[in-house]
Amino acid sequence: MIFRESLIGLILTRRAETYAFYEFWRGLALKLITSQSLPLKLFGWDQVSDLIEASEVMRPPPKSFIVSGAGTTFVNGKYNFTGLKTDDGFFRPLSEISYEMKIPNNVPGKVGGGKTLTLFRCTMRSKQKWWFLSEADEEQPGTDKDIDYYQHKPTTQNEEAEPPACGWSTSPNKSGEDPPPNLQAIGLVVPNGEEYNTLEHQLAKWAIENKVIKLVLGDSAHREIVSRSTDLIRFLAGMCEKDEPLEDNSIVSKAGVTPNEYCLKAEHLLLAWKTCTSKADAAVSDEVYQLLVSILPNLSNDLALPLIHEIQNSLKGGADKKDHLFEVAEFCSTLASSNPMDIDAGANAGGNSSVAVISDEARAAVLKLLWSVLTHPGASSLKCYEELKAYVTNELRVEPIGKVHRETFLGSCKETLTVNARKITGAESIDEILALRMVKLTRFVLEACPRDQAVVLVTADNASLAVLLFRELTAYLNRRAVSLASPQLKKQTSSMVSADNHHQLALSERLHIIRYAYGLSDRADMSSHQLDHLWSLCAVPGDREALMIFLANAANAEMGPAAMAMNPALNDTSLQTQQSHSVSSHSKQPLLAAYSDEVRVYAFQNLFCASSFDWEQLGEGAYQSFQLLFKSLKRETRTSLTSQGPALDALWKICLEAGNDDVASQAMKDLLAVYSAIASTERQQASIPNAWNKSRVNSSTPGSLSGSRMESLAQRVFQCLVRVKEGLEADDPAAERSAERCLRILNASIGNSSGESTMDSIPAGDVNFSLPMSDPSSASVSEVLRTVPHGMRGQACYRTIVIMARRTPTQNQVANSSGAAPTLPPIRDEAGNLIVCHTNGAGRQAAPKQSNFRFSLDVHPPETLSSIKANISKYCDHPIALVTPLARSGRCAMTGGRLPGGETTQTNLTSV
């Protein structure tokens, strides 16, 4: 600081000697930076930075300022320098800087006539130097008596040196009106002919004439040197628009320099980019990237646009005929991480920011460059791909230019989608990875749009964009089918695995964007014909399951995150993933249903419940989709889908034919729940009185389901077992599995399961077990036995059950009045459900003297409950009319009672 002030004081008396000293200093720095020693080079570049700082300090103040844009209109105008000058016409260093504008009185319509306005610097109590635009008091200028209109609080030392161009604010005393003004510097306070001979001009001339930039970015470039050269290159970039033509053309510069002659040129920036593409040292390239990005906001359009265009041409193969995707991506990644464009273009236009930002033209060129990277065929291998997408998203949301860029980029996507939609045979060459990326970029652009604009873009021309996305999907599925049939692909196992992995992602992403496009507005709906087309193309189990998840998700309008978390119908991970994936991150508005209610009913009845639908290889995602549609239609009281429609047939089909055991178990629960719900509904309807106050008469037997409303559960089980028998005779490997599941349904329906199931069982009294014969009451024993499935008729089918007999307290008291056992309370389980209810009945004293005892009994599958009661009565010496079975516990029923080796399965029966 002392050395700097000494130089400033020296220039007052010995200007020529001062200029000579700076010339010597520049010569010394040149020798240092051109030496062979790296430490000397680095020291020389430190001297260059000091030269730049000293030259800026010695810069003369502007000759005048143009004030514009102020809300107080009479403040706008030209302010001329009124500070001190030396005898030879130079600004006197270390003196105060001030400017003044006098408003004449004789200007018609001019507000503020006769006022004298000043632009000056004032030292505050905090020792900071603030700038003010004020009406100075004639007697005591620079005091509290001044009328301040606008002010500026400096944030850097340069802003204290001279009035800044922007960043002004309205004075707190409310004398001025918003908006605050912008300032433009004009000329320099120097004698005529010295405008282009300042120390800054001399330094710029020295750098250009000695080709200093080529020393930095040439073949011997070093990362430490590149990092230290940033100040010089930024300084030269600032010299490009510093000079203005002389007001008097007759005056010639004493230095023989024309305006803006010595400054940064486009060729210097192109040399920097060439260094990036040709240099093998990644560290040097990284420093050059940082250099270019740091100076980008300081570049004029004449410099920035050629640089960006050259970088973009590198993607197509420039002069060296190479594709420098990696280098371009690294530059863009540096740009995204540094983020110099993260300032609203509106703020730049308003001029109320002191931070330099690039122009709209350069901004558009950068976006075009980034889009070229995102759409490049090799972009999938870039690690910074997602970072670039996030940066482009922010840029696309900058208004008003963002709207134009979004429409432009979406047009580019539509062109590619149109071309790909025509390639359906597989004979045409197509990059499937790039095709998928363009689909994802289409959604990426739509999500960057406000909701209103996205709706307009999708629904324009009869929803042409949504239809185009659908056509592209069908074309892809056709190409996929052709490729699977290709013998060359079948020979390449690794290629098939890779293709399958990519196909799953490709199909899922395409379905996601179709869900998004058709869910933006009710003016774009999918038709039943489109669903049929997709269903026929997605014949492979994996594709079919993905399509079912899509159809279930698209059938209803989306819910918010909280509602989605509370909805039990969306408890499947795949459905939650697709639902959350389809929500627009920008609009934050849920999507609508992709097709109408009529199409939803059609999809469920004719696609999900089709008799030809094979569930063998489908997983839980497919069934969750079926369940979601089934429940949504059930809530809307579409009874035809539950009682007599195809839904019940589909549930039976899933229970018996699903290859996934978890799917079959869940379908079994839903099937029994449907029967239970229908039975409950029938009982309620039967108890409702009609217009004559008489209860409706149920045509079926009491306690059974209405025969007019649904097919008997037992009859359905019998029909299934008949088909199972046919399957076993035909050596169908799935027949045995179907038989086992059919018996599970039967056991669960009569409350005879193991007790571990959480499904709602149908009471045994609610089921009408009708034998398939005309008159069961007159049938012979042989006819009845023929209805028993094969394997349950022989002696080997006997099962051993354990009988737990319990006499009621009343019986004990009759038998023994003196030693009667106390009355036993009812027995209940942990949930409070009644397990055993003891009855009071008179009878003879049984042979066993105990009140509780147990014994074994062999029973046969066709044996009736009456036969079992008779055996218990005989053993206990108790009237058969007083024997009541109460509860059953033990292992589940098996098709055979005796296991190999004579082992038997046992079931406990409690009776009183």
UniProtKB/TrEMBL annotation:
Region Disordered: start-end pairs: 155-179
Record protein name field: Uncharacterized protein
Organism expressing this protein natively: Ditylum brightwellii
Organism ancestry: Eukaryota, Sar, Stramenopiles, Ochrophyta, Bacillariophyta
